[in-house]
Amino acid sequence: MARAKQLTISHENLLGMFAHIAKVLGDAQVNILAFVTATSGREGLTHLIVDRSDTPKKAFASAGLAYTEADVLQLELPNTPGALGKFARKLAHEDINITLGYATGGKGSRKTTVVLAVSDLDKGDIIR
């Protein structure tokens, strides 16, 4: 199973904030592979998987965007009903908690890409 570096930006809940983040990365020639963004009140969090996790450091610094990095699981699952539930049950059976998750798979595609932050990355990394 592959690990990925997740970048998390804590920001104000402002109109156009995600557009700004995406432009900063685009201008730095960094491709966003997966993301989830959420807000609550005045605060927002954006989690990103990008193709080059070393490059955004300078771009984010120049744009005044603070971020953190964390390793997460990134895996492909069949794009079929129950596949994610089956994998999540395997993690739970091993006492591994999913603390954040997001996925994408287009209708008709055979695979879904899943990103999971888990309580035990090393243990979760070997589950198939």
Largest sheet, order of strands side by side? Answer: 2-3-1-4-6-5
End-to-end gap: 8 Å
Q: Which whole number gives the mean pLDDT?
A: 93
Q: CATH homologous superfamily of the largest domain, by name?
A: VC0802-like
What's the total helix number? 4
Q: Which structural class is indicated by helix and strand composition?
A: alpha+beta
Shape: globular
Q: Please summarize the sheet with the most strands.
A: 6 strands, antiparallel
Query: Cα-atom Rg, whole angstroms?
Result: 16 Å
Beta-strand residue percentage: 35-45%
* Total domain units: 2
* H/E topology pattern: EHEEHEHEEH
CATH topology of the largest domain: VC0802-like
**CATH class categorisation of the largest domain:** Alpha Beta
State the low-pLDDT regions, or none.
none
Helical amount among residues, as a percent range?
A: 25-40%
SS elements, strand count: 6
- The CATH architecture of the largest domain: 2-Layer Sandwich
Please tell me about this protein's structure:
With 128 residues, the chain is of the alpha+beta class. It folds into two domains: 2-71, 2-Layer Sandwich (VC0802-like); 72-123, VC0802-like. Helices cover 27% and strands 43% of the residues. It is built from four helices and six strands. Strands 2-3-1-4-6-5 form a six-stranded antiparallel β-sheet, covered by helices on one side. The longest helix is centred in the N-terminal third of the chain and has 11 residues, at 17-27. It is globular. The model has no long low-confidence stretch (mean pLDDT 93).
